[in-house]
Design goal:
three-stranded antiparallel beta sheet, OB fold (Dihydrolipoamide Acetyltransferase, E2P), globular, alpha/beta, eleven-stranded mixed beta sheet
Length: 338
């Protein structure tokens, strides 16, 4: 089982490319963008073993596999190396931290892809797998996009039945709030007020003409998470025709939520009233936590909590608020969460 990267490998990015002899899409699969999220790493290594043994063949297109995308964080067995690689992702002429160096290598690779599947896991239970979906087709300034139909079709074939949208819009609103209240000088807090703060691997790929999905495969230590990741990879390859395999099942019933607000932790003294798990439901007025000064933080309406982080760095996201979405996905309506 892969748990860490040897120190000498923490200074390079290792990718593996398998090219078929027939035309097809260029697909990239990422693991360990956050170093302690190893389900994707394990799934990719399993797939590579099958490819190298001749048990599976890439017949069409090109498949790029990066089992460990953040080798420093992976070597440390923690989420980040110097900072979060999956925020402020862009090349830079003057790298300031390890993730900047990785971005300078990773971004050109992402820009050369048609499709990205980025595999993650979550800290808190229960850790039910879910998919992060991109925007609908639009010509706006934030993230113009024209491949929503392809992205939606893939989302319904990965396997999990819970989908969340609204990522970048929510980040943009969060940045506006931080700019109005910024006073800290730590690099992590400065980055969170950058207008490009919400840009990670999927957003960068979409900006350069591809489409992309993030799959949260479950809780970090869930033994089923690598299996969720592996099935999603195989379903992606089958759906896109890189391998000869039966077409994956289309999820006829699925849940769809839309992130509508990000709430930052402002002080070390900010506390949740209890241990929240992603997708716990609350009603309007329910107390979610208390600020350091004792002020109660209440739910603005009925909804769900997503990515609660009791150890969030002050000035950065503490949790997200989500509500049911009425968006059609691949022409299908979602069901309401129970």
């Amino acid at each position: 089982m892969t748990t860490a990267t040897p120190a000498h490998r923490a200074h390079m990015l290792k990718s593996h490319v398998y090219a078929g002899f027939e035309p097809g899409p260029r697909v990239i699969i990422l693991g360990a963008v956050h170093g302690n999220e190893i389900c994707g790493t394990l799934a990719i290594e399993r797939l590579m073993a099958e490819l190298d043994a001749g048990e599976l063949t890439i017949l069409r297109g090109r498949l790029t596999l990066i089992p460990v995308t953040n080798p420093l964080a992976h070597a440390k067995v923690q989420r980040n190396g110097d900072r979060n690689l999956n925020r402020n992702l862009a090349p830079t002429n003057i790298p300031q931290d390890f993730e900047d160096h990785i971005a300078n290598v990773l971004c050109p690779i992402l820009a050369d892809q048609d499709v990205l599947l980025d595999l993650h896991s979550t800290t808190n239970p229960p850790g039910q797998p879910f998919i992060m979906l991109g925007p609908q087709n639009n010509t706006g300034e934030l993230l113009p996009f024209a491949r929503a139909a392809e992205e939606e079709a893939l989302a319904l074939r990965l396997g999990p039945t819970r989908i969340v949208e609204g990522w970048l819009d929510t980040y943009a609103e969060g940045v506006k709030y931080r700019l109005a209240h910024a006073s800290a000088s730590l690099r992590a807090q400065m980055l969170s007020t950058d207008p490009s703060y919400g840009v990670g691997t999927t957003e960068y790929t979409r900006k350069h003409g591809g489409y992309a999905l993030t799959l949260e495969c479950g809780q970090h230590n869930d033994p089923e998470a690598p299996e969720v990741a592996y099935r999603a990879i195989r379903n992606t390859l089958a759906h896109l025709g890189l391998i000869d395999a039966p077409a994956p099942t289309v999820q006829a019933e699925f849940e769809l939520l839309k992130l509508s607000q990000v709430i930052d932790r402002m002080d070390e003294g900010d506390r949740f009233v209890r241990e929240w798990a992603s997708f716990d439901h609350f009603k309007a007025g329910d107390v979610i936590g208390h600020r350091a000064n004792g002020t109660a933080l209440t739910a603005p309406s009925d909804g769900y909590i997503v990515f609660p982080s009791p150890i969030a760095v002050p000035g950065n996201e503490w949790f997200y608020f989500a509500q049911a979405s009425e968006r059609l996905v691949d022409g299908r309506a979602a069901r309401i969460m129970g």
